[in-house]
Amino acid sequence: MKLVLASNNAGKLAELQALFAPLGVELVRQSELGVGEAEEPFRTFVENALAKARHAAAITGLPAIADDAGLCVDAFGGLPGVDTAYYATQFGYEKGDANNVRALLEQMATLDNRRAALVSTLVALRSADDPEPLIAVGRAPGEITRERIGDNGFGFDPVMFLPQFGKTFAQLPTDVKNANSHRGQAARAMLALMRERWLSP
């Protein structure tokens, strides 16, 4: 089965391709099919993921899958949430992972409550008009470190400390990260839904 991935993020594509390979699902990045970015006007991950998946499915005619993910910081009332990708721009920095991490560490410098969670919401549609989207959520709770630690991964991985491992996501081997990450959890839940709803005889 071929699905269009409603994202142009290479890191996301690589992670999700590895996770979906066992189902025989081939993910094609939307940019390879001439699909531009969808509007994401909503304040929740699920609404934005649904908008992205509908956009990609409508243009390509293919089933689509979209991920909306972000960092939810306890001390900030769950923000930056859906604005995670643009977090640094609120503080005068250019958009980008390194600047997002820099801005977060600066904003949390005086805070003792370091609790946060990386959240991923995956939405899959058989068509743009599918009335029953598959929705899977993954959540990886942890604490924000006071400095970057580790060289693997992307996004907030170097500052997301996981107490159960005593390490940040950026210190974990890829297979361990994928097994425990918010995106890994959401992808496994999505695989189960696809098997049950789309692929069972």
From TrEMBL:
Reactions this protein catalyses: ITP + H2O = IMP + diphosphate + H(+); dITP + H2O = dIMP + diphosphate + H(+); XTP + H2O = XMP + diphosphate + H(+)
EC number: 3.6.1.66
Biological function: Pyrophosphatase that catalyzes the hydrolysis of nucleoside triphosphates to their monophosphate derivatives, with a high preference for the non-canonical purine nucleotides XTP (xanthosine triphosphate), dITP (deoxyinosine triphosphate) and ITP. Seems to function as a house-cleaning enzyme that removes non-canonical purine nucleotides from the nucleotide pool, thus preventing their incorporation into DNA/RNA and avoiding chromosomal lesions.
Entry annotated with the keyword Cytoplasm: no
Cofactor note: Binds 1 Mg(2+) ion per subunit.
Residues annotated to bind substrate: S7, N8, N9, A10, G11, K12, A69, F154, G155, F156, D157, K177, H182, R183
Keyword Metal-binding tagged: yes
Keywords: Hydrolase, Magnesium, Metal-binding, Nucleotide metabolism, Nucleotide-binding
Subunit architecture: Homodimer.
Binding site for Mg(2+): E39, D68
Family: Belongs to the HAM1 NTPase family.
SUPFAM superfamilies per the UniProt record, alphabetical: ITPase-like
Active site annotation, chain numbering: D68 (proton acceptor)
Superkingdom of origin organism: Bacteria
Annotated protein name in UniProt: dITP/XTP pyrophosphatase
Cofactors (names): Mg(2+)
